[in-house]
Write a structure and sequence with these properties.
The chain is built from 4 helices and 2 strands. It has 2 domains: 40 residues, no CATH class; 86 residues, no CATH class. Helices cover 73% and strands 3% of the residues. By secondary structure, the protein is mainly α. Strands 1-2 form a two-stranded antiparallel sheet. It is globular. The protein starts with a helix and ends with a helix. α2 packs parallel to α4.
Length: 127
């Protein structure tokens, strides 16, 4: 019984973190594992997975900001279509577009840091 209580306490803590991160945590838009709702919705789950994939990929390979923007736009498009009730989104599509959006964000972050580092290096070389 104590293990289940500890797990429940951990789950509540993760749900609080998910809410604090800005996720709506709607059950109908979330995945479940053995009856337990994920701490973030399907789209936010995808964004987190995309960032986990995107940061290492962007560090190893130079991916353009144009590609990253297209990835982010896929998430925005899915959200807009869902919001405008043009097309009903599914958790699978939310996950996929979330992965693309998270990947794109990670690439943009890495490229921004690279640009700042280059600018600092140029400034140091001129001095």
């Amino acid at each position: 019984m104590n293990g289940r209580k500890n797990f429940y306490s951990l789950w509540l803590h993760l749900m609080e973190i998910g809410a604090a991160a800005g996720c709506h945590q709607r059950p109908e838009r979330s995945f479940f594992f053995h009856g337990w709702q994920f701490p973030v919705c399907a789209r936010c789950t995808g964004v987190l997975l995309g960032q986990l994939l995107g940061f290492p990929a962007a560090l190893v390979k130079n991916i353009s900001c144009s590609v990253a923007a297209i990835c982010c736009e896929s998430t925005l498009l899915d959200w807009l279509l869902q919001y405008a009730v043009v097309k009903k989104s599914t958790n699978a599509r939310r996950l996929i577009t979330g992965v693309l959006g998270g990947f794109g964000l990670a690439v943009i972050y890495v490229n921004a840091v690279r640009g700042i580092v280059r600018k600092i290096k140029r400034g140091v070389e001129k001095a």
